Amino acid sequence: MIKRCPECDIEVVGRSDKKFCSAKCKSIHQYENIQKQEVFYLSVDKQLKKNRRLLKKFNKSGFTTIRTTVLLNDGFNPKYFTHYWKTKKGELYLFCYDFGFLSMNRNGVQKYLIVQWQDYMND
Question: What is the pTM of this model?
Answer without folding.
Answer: 0.76
